[in-house]
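Re-run with default settings, no changes from the original entry. Doing this only to confirm the output is reproducible before filing.
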Amino acid sequence: MSAVKLGGVIPPVPTIFSADETFDRRGMGVLIDRLLASDVDGFLFLGSAGEFSQLSAPERREIAEFCVGRVAKRRPVIIGTASCSTREVIELSKHAAEIGADAVMVVNPYYSLLTEERIYSHYRTIAESAGLPVLLYNFPALTGQDLSVDLVRRLARDCPNIAGIKDTVDCTSHIRRIVLEVKGERPDFIVFCGFDEYLLDTLLVGGDGAIPATSNFAPEITCGIYKAFRAGDFATIKTLVPRLAALSRIYSIDTPFSGLIKEAIRLTGSDIPTAVVAPATAPDAAMKQRLVDILVRSGVLPA
C-alpha cells in the first residue's frame, strides 16, 4: 500500500454536539465548510479534540461517515480510530477505509501499561489489518507511555503501512530524533508535531508539519507559517511565530481544552453550539474571559 500524501497544517477538528450531547450535523457542517474555505491541508476527525474517548463505537462511525462525506475528497481526511482494544481499533479502521477516509491515526492504549513489545504487536497487528495507512499518535502526557524513538523506528522499518506519527511531546528533541533517525532511514515517513508552537522547529529539522488545534479558528497563523517556510519568507515567519506563541497559552486554561476550542471557533465567527460530552464540562465565565484576552493579544480578535 502506498504512503498517504500528507503534510502541512491539519486541524484536529472538534466534534460538534447539541446541548443534549447528540451529534450536531448542522454545526459540524458549518465548521467543515469554514475549514475548507481556508488554507488547511487536510482534516483529522475523532482525535483528542474530537472527544473520541467519550463516544461509543456507533457514534464514532456516524461522525466519521458524516465528516468524510462532507469533505467529499476535497482534502485528505484522517480518522482517529484509537481504542484500548486492538480488535476495536481494527474494526473502526476498516470502517474508515470503507467510507473513503485516507488514513487513520491511533494513539497507544491508555489504561493498562504495556511492555514495548506489546505496544509493537498492537500497532503491527493494526497496520496489517486496517486497510488504510496508519499514523502513530504519541501523547505520553495522556497515555502514560511514550512511544520511544527505537520503537517508532522499528515499526517504520517493519510496517510499510505505518505512514508517520503525530508526536505530541513537550520536547523538541524527541521530534528531532524521530526526524533524523526514523525519517532519515525512511524518507516517506511523515512527522507532525502535536503542539502548535513547535511547528517551525519541526519544519526546520525536516519534519512535515503540525496537527494544531488553533488551526480550527486561526488557520491564518499556522498555515501562514507553513506557507512562509515553504517560500523562504522569514520576515513573515518572524511576525507570525510570536502570535502563535501567545495563542498557545489557551491550552493552560482548562483540561480538557475541547470546550475552549469550540468557544474560540464561535467567537471568531462560526455559529456552532459549544457543548462538550461528559465528564467534560463547558468552560466557566472566567475561563472564557481568559480565552478572549489571549485571542486579542494574539491578534485573532480585535482589541
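The CA atoms of residues 111 and 128 lie 23 Å apart. The first strand starts at residue 8 and ends at 9.
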